[in-house]
Amino acid sequence: MQVSSDSPRARWAGILCGLGSALIWGAFPVVTRLGITQQALDAYDITFIRYTVAGLILLPYLLRRGLMGLSWKAAALMVAGIGAPYMLVVSLGLALAPVEQFAVVTPGSMIVFAALISACGSRALPPARETAGLALIVAGIALAGMQAFAASRTPPQAYAIFLAGGLMWAAYTVMSRRSAASALHATAVVSVFSMALYAPPYLAARGLALLHAPWPDILLQALYQGVLVSTVALFLFSQSVRLLGPATGATFAALVPGSATLLAAVMLGEHPGAPLLAGLAIVTAGMALTLLRPARTRGKRGPDGTTIVTRP
Hints:
By secondary structure, the chain is mainly alpha-helical. About 75% of the residues lie in helices and about 5% in strands. It contains 14 helices and 2 strands, in the order ααααααααααααααββ. Strands 1-2 form a two-stranded antiparallel sheet. The model is unreliable at about 295-310 (pLDDT under 50).
Protein backbone atom coordinates (compact mmCIF):
# COMPACT_ATOMS: atom_id res chain seq x y z
CA MET A 1 0.00 0.00 0.00
CA GLN A 2 1.33 3.43 -0.94
CA VAL A 3 1.72 5.85 1.94
CA SER A 4 0.81 9.50 1.51
CA SER A 5 3.85 11.77 1.49
CA ASP A 6 2.10 13.93 4.11
CA SER A 7 1.62 11.12 6.65
CA PRO A 8 3.85 10.82 9.74
CA ARG A 9 4.94 7.37 8.58
CA ALA A 10 6.12 8.71 5.23
CA ARG A 11 7.88 11.64 6.90
CA TRP A 12 9.86 9.38 9.22
CA ALA A 13 10.68 7.09 6.29
CA GLY A 14 11.98 10.15 4.44
CA ILE A 15 14.07 11.17 7.44
CA LEU A 16 15.62 7.69 7.76
CA CYS A 17 16.39 7.60 4.03
CA GLY A 18 17.99 11.03 4.24
CA LEU A 19 20.15 9.98 7.18
CA GLY A 20 21.31 6.85 5.33
CA SER A 21 22.26 8.78 2.20
CA ALA A 22 24.14 11.41 4.21
CA LEU A 23 26.20 8.83 6.08
CA ILE A 24 27.22 7.07 2.84
CA TRP A 25 27.94 10.34 1.04
CA GLY A 26 30.00 11.53 3.99
CA ALA A 27 32.75 9.11 2.96
CA PHE A 28 32.53 10.14 -0.70
CA PRO A 29 35.09 12.99 -0.54
CA VAL A 30 37.43 10.89 1.60
CA VAL A 31 37.41 7.89 -0.74
CA THR A 32 37.58 10.11 -3.86
CA ARG A 33 40.52 12.16 -2.59
CA LEU A 34 42.22 8.95 -1.48
CA GLY A 35 41.92 7.61 -5.03
CA ILE A 36 43.17 10.83 -6.63
CA THR A 37 46.06 11.59 -4.28
CA GLN A 38 47.21 8.21 -2.93
CA GLN A 39 46.22 5.68 -5.61
CA ALA A 40 47.15 5.24 -9.26
CA LEU A 41 43.88 6.85 -10.39
CA ASP A 42 42.64 10.29 -11.39
CA ALA A 43 39.25 12.04 -11.57
CA TYR A 44 38.51 10.63 -15.03
CA ASP A 45 39.27 7.05 -13.95
CA ILE A 46 37.11 7.29 -10.84
CA THR A 47 34.20 8.78 -12.80
CA PHE A 48 34.42 5.92 -15.31
CA ILE A 49 34.52 3.28 -12.56
CA ARG A 50 31.63 4.86 -10.68
CA TYR A 51 29.11 5.08 -13.50
CA THR A 52 30.14 1.98 -15.40
CA VAL A 53 29.51 -0.16 -12.31
CA ALA A 54 26.29 1.62 -11.34
CA GLY A 55 25.08 1.75 -14.95
CA LEU A 56 25.58 -1.98 -15.50
CA ILE A 57 23.76 -2.78 -12.24
CA LEU A 58 20.72 -0.69 -13.15
CA LEU A 59 20.67 -1.19 -16.94
CA PRO A 60 18.23 -4.18 -16.83
CA TYR A 61 15.77 -2.17 -14.74
CA LEU A 62 15.86 0.86 -17.07
CA LEU A 63 15.49 -1.32 -20.16
CA ARG A 64 12.31 -2.79 -18.67
CA ARG A 65 10.86 0.49 -17.46
CA GLY A 66 12.08 3.00 -20.03
CA LEU A 67 11.67 6.71 -19.26
CA MET A 68 8.16 6.16 -17.79
CA GLY A 69 6.95 9.54 -19.03
CA LEU A 70 10.09 11.43 -17.93
CA SER A 71 10.91 14.14 -20.46
CA TRP A 72 14.32 14.23 -22.09
CA LYS A 73 14.88 17.71 -20.64
CA ALA A 74 14.21 16.48 -17.11
CA ALA A 75 16.43 13.43 -17.64
CA ALA A 76 19.25 15.62 -18.97
CA LEU A 77 19.05 17.97 -15.97
CA MET A 78 19.04 15.05 -13.55
CA VAL A 79 22.07 13.44 -15.21
CA ALA A 80 23.96 16.75 -15.31
CA GLY A 81 22.96 17.49 -11.73
CA ILE A 82 24.35 14.43 -10.00
CA GLY A 83 25.69 12.20 -12.78
CA ALA A 84 29.03 12.10 -14.55
CA PRO A 85 29.30 15.92 -15.04
CA TYR A 86 28.83 16.47 -11.30
CA MET A 87 31.35 13.77 -10.45
CA LEU A 88 33.97 15.28 -12.76
CA VAL A 89 33.45 18.76 -11.34
CA VAL A 90 33.81 17.82 -7.66
CA SER A 91 36.64 15.36 -8.36
CA LEU A 92 38.65 18.11 -10.04
CA GLY A 93 37.98 20.28 -7.00
CA LEU A 94 39.11 17.54 -4.63
CA ALA A 95 42.37 17.33 -6.54
CA LEU A 96 43.00 20.97 -5.51
CA ALA A 97 41.51 21.18 -2.02
CA PRO A 98 41.20 19.01 1.12
CA VAL A 99 38.11 17.02 2.05
CA GLU A 100 36.91 19.48 4.70
CA GLN A 101 36.46 22.29 2.20
CA PHE A 102 34.36 20.19 -0.17
CA ALA A 103 32.31 19.00 2.79
CA VAL A 104 31.66 22.58 3.86
CA VAL A 105 31.09 24.36 0.54
CA THR A 106 29.22 21.88 -1.68
CA PRO A 107 26.55 20.53 0.71
CA GLY A 108 25.97 23.95 2.29
CA SER A 109 25.57 25.72 -1.03
CA MET A 110 23.34 22.90 -2.31
CA ILE A 111 20.91 23.43 0.58
CA VAL A 112 20.72 27.15 -0.16
CA PHE A 113 20.40 26.69 -3.92
CA ALA A 114 17.68 24.03 -3.52
CA ALA A 115 15.65 26.27 -1.21
CA LEU A 116 16.02 29.24 -3.59
CA ILE A 117 15.07 27.23 -6.68
CA SER A 118 12.05 25.77 -4.89
CA ALA A 119 10.97 29.21 -3.68
CA CYS A 120 11.29 30.66 -7.18
CA GLY A 121 9.34 27.77 -8.69
CA SER A 122 6.49 28.02 -6.19
CA ARG A 123 6.70 31.83 -5.95
CA ALA A 124 6.40 31.50 -2.20
CA LEU A 125 8.85 31.67 0.66
CA PRO A 126 9.29 28.57 2.84
CA PRO A 127 7.62 28.65 6.28
CA ALA A 128 9.38 30.71 8.95
CA ARG A 129 10.34 27.57 10.89
CA GLU A 130 12.09 26.02 7.87
CA THR A 131 13.72 29.35 6.98
CA ALA A 132 15.16 29.62 10.48
CA GLY A 133 16.37 26.02 10.30
CA LEU A 134 18.07 26.62 6.96
CA ALA A 135 19.73 29.75 8.34
CA LEU A 136 21.09 27.77 11.28
CA ILE A 137 22.38 25.03 8.96
CA VAL A 138 24.24 27.53 6.78
CA ALA A 139 25.66 29.33 9.84
CA GLY A 140 26.78 26.05 11.36
CA ILE A 141 28.46 24.87 8.18
CA ALA A 142 30.24 28.23 7.84
CA LEU A 143 31.48 27.97 11.43
CA ALA A 144 32.57 24.38 10.86
CA GLY A 145 34.67 25.52 7.93
CA MET A 146 36.45 28.35 9.71
CA GLN A 147 39.42 26.28 10.85
CA ALA A 148 39.94 24.69 7.45
CA PHE A 149 39.67 28.01 5.58
CA ALA A 150 41.89 29.94 7.99
CA ALA A 151 44.89 27.67 7.47
CA SER A 152 44.24 26.95 3.81
CA ARG A 153 46.32 27.76 0.76
CA THR A 154 43.68 26.42 -1.57
CA PRO A 155 43.46 28.22 -4.94
CA PRO A 156 40.29 30.32 -5.41
CA GLN A 157 39.11 28.24 -8.35
CA ALA A 158 38.59 25.27 -6.03
CA TYR A 159 35.88 27.18 -4.16
CA ALA A 160 34.20 28.09 -7.46
CA ILE A 161 34.29 24.42 -8.48
CA PHE A 162 32.71 23.32 -5.21
CA LEU A 163 29.99 26.00 -5.53
CA ALA A 164 29.26 24.79 -9.06
CA GLY A 165 28.92 21.28 -7.64
CA GLY A 166 26.41 22.56 -5.08
CA LEU A 167 24.33 24.22 -7.79
CA MET A 168 24.33 21.06 -9.92
CA TRP A 169 23.30 18.89 -6.96
CA ALA A 170 20.47 21.33 -6.13
CA ALA A 171 19.21 21.16 -9.73
CA TYR A 172 18.93 17.38 -9.46
CA THR A 173 17.20 17.64 -6.09
CA VAL A 174 14.48 19.94 -7.41
CA MET A 175 14.05 18.23 -10.78
CA SER A 176 13.71 14.72 -9.34
CA ARG A 177 10.86 15.97 -7.16
CA ARG A 178 9.11 17.93 -9.93
CA SER A 179 9.33 15.06 -12.40
CA ALA A 180 7.64 12.74 -9.86
CA ALA A 181 10.20 10.04 -10.68
CA SER A 182 10.44 7.20 -8.20
CA ALA A 183 13.69 6.94 -6.28
CA LEU A 184 14.80 3.79 -8.10
CA HIS A 185 13.87 5.16 -11.51
CA ALA A 186 15.72 8.42 -10.90
CA THR A 187 18.78 6.47 -9.77
CA ALA A 188 18.65 4.25 -12.87
CA VAL A 189 18.27 7.22 -15.24
CA VAL A 190 21.27 9.02 -13.76
CA SER A 191 23.52 5.96 -13.64
CA VAL A 192 22.72 4.42 -17.05
CA PHE A 193 22.74 7.66 -19.02
CA SER A 194 25.97 8.75 -17.31
CA MET A 195 27.55 5.46 -18.36
CA ALA A 196 26.27 5.81 -21.93
CA LEU A 197 27.52 9.39 -22.26
CA TYR A 198 30.84 9.07 -20.46
CA ALA A 199 32.18 5.57 -21.17
CA PRO A 200 32.61 5.89 -24.98
CA PRO A 201 34.77 9.07 -24.96
CA TYR A 202 36.73 7.77 -21.96
CA LEU A 203 37.53 4.46 -23.68
CA ALA A 204 38.32 6.25 -26.95
CA ALA A 205 40.83 8.49 -25.17
CA ARG A 206 42.38 6.00 -22.74
CA GLY A 207 41.50 2.54 -23.94
CA LEU A 208 42.09 -0.14 -21.30
CA ALA A 209 44.93 1.67 -19.52
CA LEU A 210 42.87 1.58 -16.31
CA LEU A 211 43.49 -2.16 -16.07
CA HIS A 212 47.16 -1.46 -15.30
CA ALA A 213 46.18 0.15 -11.99
CA PRO A 214 46.37 -2.04 -8.85
CA TRP A 215 43.24 -4.18 -8.52
CA PRO A 216 42.64 -3.32 -4.84
CA ASP A 217 42.43 0.37 -5.84
CA ILE A 218 39.93 -0.39 -8.60
CA LEU A 219 37.82 -2.66 -6.41
CA LEU A 220 37.63 -0.11 -3.59
CA GLN A 221 36.38 2.59 -5.94
CA ALA A 222 34.01 0.18 -7.74
CA LEU A 223 32.40 -0.99 -4.50
CA TYR A 224 32.12 2.39 -2.87
CA GLN A 225 31.50 4.71 -5.83
CA GLY A 226 29.56 2.36 -8.08
CA VAL A 227 27.47 0.45 -5.54
CA LEU A 228 27.16 2.47 -2.35
CA VAL A 229 27.32 6.10 -3.56
CA SER A 230 25.76 5.94 -7.03
CA THR A 231 23.17 3.26 -6.31
CA VAL A 232 22.30 2.87 -2.62
CA ALA A 233 22.86 6.48 -1.43
CA LEU A 234 21.31 8.07 -4.51
CA PHE A 235 18.23 5.86 -4.13
CA LEU A 236 17.89 6.81 -0.44
CA PHE A 237 18.39 10.52 -1.16
CA SER A 238 15.86 10.48 -4.02
CA GLN A 239 13.35 8.72 -1.79
CA SER A 240 13.89 11.31 0.93
CA VAL A 241 13.34 14.17 -1.52
CA ARG A 242 10.20 12.48 -2.88
CA LEU A 243 8.72 12.08 0.60
CA LEU A 244 9.84 15.34 2.19
CA GLY A 245 10.15 17.77 -0.73
CA PRO A 246 13.32 19.27 -2.25
CA ALA A 247 13.99 21.99 0.32
CA THR A 248 13.55 19.72 3.37
CA GLY A 249 15.10 16.64 1.78
CA ALA A 250 18.17 18.66 0.83
CA THR A 251 18.92 19.50 4.46
CA PHE A 252 20.32 16.01 5.03
CA ALA A 253 23.35 17.12 3.07
CA ALA A 254 24.16 19.14 6.19
CA LEU A 255 25.25 15.87 7.82
CA VAL A 256 27.95 15.36 5.18
CA PRO A 257 30.51 17.70 6.83
CA GLY A 258 30.21 15.87 10.15
CA SER A 259 30.36 12.36 8.76
CA ALA A 260 33.16 13.33 6.37
CA THR A 261 35.13 14.83 9.26
CA LEU A 262 34.76 11.72 11.40
CA LEU A 263 35.79 9.44 8.54
CA ALA A 264 38.71 11.72 7.63
CA ALA A 265 39.88 11.46 11.25
CA VAL A 266 39.79 7.67 11.05
CA MET A 267 41.19 7.21 7.53
CA LEU A 268 43.43 10.25 7.12
CA GLY A 269 44.42 11.07 10.71
CA GLU A 270 42.73 14.49 10.72
CA HIS A 271 41.32 15.80 14.01
CA PRO A 272 38.46 18.32 14.31
CA GLY A 273 38.94 21.55 16.23
CA ALA A 274 36.56 23.49 18.45
CA PRO A 275 35.02 25.63 15.63
CA LEU A 276 34.18 22.50 13.69
CA LEU A 277 32.51 20.80 16.64
CA ALA A 278 30.54 23.95 17.47
CA GLY A 279 29.45 24.30 13.87
CA LEU A 280 28.24 20.72 13.73
CA ALA A 281 26.15 21.28 16.88
CA ILE A 282 24.48 24.29 15.23
CA VAL A 283 23.85 22.25 12.09
CA THR A 284 22.13 19.58 14.17
CA ALA A 285 19.90 22.20 15.78
CA GLY A 286 19.02 23.63 12.38
CA MET A 287 18.11 20.22 11.02
CA ALA A 288 15.90 19.52 14.03
CA LEU A 289 14.11 22.85 13.54
CA THR A 290 13.58 22.12 9.85
CA LEU A 291 12.57 18.47 10.06
CA LEU A 292 10.57 18.14 13.27
CA ARG A 293 7.21 19.77 12.66
CA PRO A 294 5.03 20.99 15.52
CA ALA A 295 1.86 19.07 16.25
CA ARG A 296 -0.85 19.75 13.73
CA THR A 297 -3.83 21.81 14.75
CA ARG A 298 -7.35 20.58 14.40
CA GLY A 299 -10.62 22.43 14.72
CA LYS A 300 -14.24 22.07 15.65
CA ARG A 301 -17.22 24.21 14.85
CA GLY A 302 -18.52 26.68 17.38
CA PRO A 303 -22.16 27.65 17.77
CA ASP A 304 -21.73 30.53 15.34
CA GLY A 305 -20.11 28.32 12.67
CA THR A 306 -16.54 29.56 13.20
CA THR A 307 -13.67 27.15 13.68
CA ILE A 308 -12.17 26.77 17.13
CA VAL A 309 -8.55 25.62 16.83
CA THR A 310 -7.33 23.08 19.37
CA ARG A 311 -4.16 21.03 19.88
CA PRO A 312 -4.41 17.23 19.89
